[in-house]
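User: Structure please.
Assistant: Input sequence and predicted structure:
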Amino acid sequence: MRKRTKPTTVRAVADRRRFEAQARRLFDEARRSADPDHAVERTLAHHEHRAASAELRRQSEEDLLAELVSKLERYAEAERAAGRASAAADQLRRQARQEELRVARNARRREEYRRRAEGTDTYRHPPSKAVRVEVDPAAWQALKIEAVKSRASMQRLLGLLVIADLASGDCHSSGRDRDEPRWSRTGQGRRARQYAQIEVDDETWEVLRVDAAERRLTIARRVGIAVERWVSDRVS
């Protein structure tokens, strides 16, 4: 079987011809010297040394390149590991913050209920705040009916409801809720904009604001979710 020769390129052919011409020139110079045989051997040895040096230099550069690639890969992996560790630390901080808020909310609720049960004269209703509520119309109507039955003001009932919902630390919503359309007219499956007063103190209002921001919700929608959840719990 005939051995297949490697395909040659135009550049390879040109290099080959150039090397042949250079070799003939060196050979002619060696033959014109006083000791042709010694001159040829010296020329061959010289170029052999140059070839060996070039090969060593190439190998050294390849080794350095491989080492550099390895270090870059290690650096990239270290960067990814640091990013994962940072994300985990942020998650732990958020969880700790949520736990602190939950404990504080529960403590305020217990104190409020204790004062109401004792009927102390020192208890005062917190100031009311104007709020827009994005809520299911049926849930809002159920809240109004409950206010009439319990002979409580809407702002008072809405405030207690929101405090209880914040204390539970749960919220049946996600960031996508924020991107849904807001409706100004009622209808099946739609939310209506309601304008009301909510009776909460400044600290609870700040907790509500932070909680809504952490869940990527508006305050209006966060209050609406509290109302809808209250209705859902009553039905279940």
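The radius of gyration is 41 Å.
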